[in-house]
Amino acid sequence: MSSIRNDHEVARDLAGEAGQQLLRLRARHGFEEPDVLRTLGDRTSHEFLFSALGRLRPSDAVLSEEGVDDPARLSARRVWIIDPLDGTREFAEAGRTDWAVHVALWENGRLAAGAVALPAQGSTLSSADPPWLPEERPSGQRLRITASRTRPPEFVQKMATALGAEIVPMGSAGAKICAVLLGIADLYVHAGGQFEWDSAAPVAVARAAGLHASRIDGSDLEYNALDPSLPDILVCRPELSGMLLGSIRDVADLDGAGPQAAG
């Protein structure tokens, strides 16, 4: 870690190292006790990230899915928002690669840096070097919507039918947003429950790459709030955002979408 020069690199390097630790834990423990593996994964990654941030950025606050929420973060200028293991279910299933590590920095009211490690896919996407976004989608290509493999919102199926789109189910929210960044899908949409740590890092990378990211009513995604619940999200190519937000309004009960479970 001695070569770290800026916040983008801190996010990238810490997410990547946490991911490597999780891969080693997976290989050592195996999959016969998935509940134990999930618990170990959450704890191992959280303890590493929390300790490393305390050493590298001792003046900054930390908001972690696996940590105690310190109210001091609300008056802090800089807050690291981390999900030590996004897609815990998938992490404990042999052969699955759709789980991630999220590390993001919120500074003075905005996301300033972020990284998403996809350890089982051998990559880390970060704001230090965001993926290149092709100028145009291939003409005539069917829209591909990535959504929760276990808890897809009902409106997503209605939306897919209306748009003639294909649904691509995946686990981790970070893996789904990275699928949009990598051209595997054209959009990710979710409602029904998430928290800041589910989206902060992938949104930081997505915005650095030029993607649209908002709530499903088009309003901004706000981080480091008193209540860390951030229950819905749309990430897509910018030229699709107007059409997709209109489609969501047509098929979703926006007043009825509330926090239930991450996806």
UniProtKB/TrEMBL annotation:
SUPFAM superfamilies recorded: Carbohydrate phosphatase (SSF56655)
CDD domains, sorted: CysQ
InterPro entries according to UniProt: CysQ/Inositol_MonoPase (IPR050725), Inositol_monophosphatase-like (IPR000760)
PANTHER family: 3'(2'),5'-BISPHOSPHATE NUCLEOTIDASE 1
Protein name (database record): 3'(2'),5'-bisphosphate nucleotidase CysQ
Source organism of this protein record: Nocardiopsis suaedae
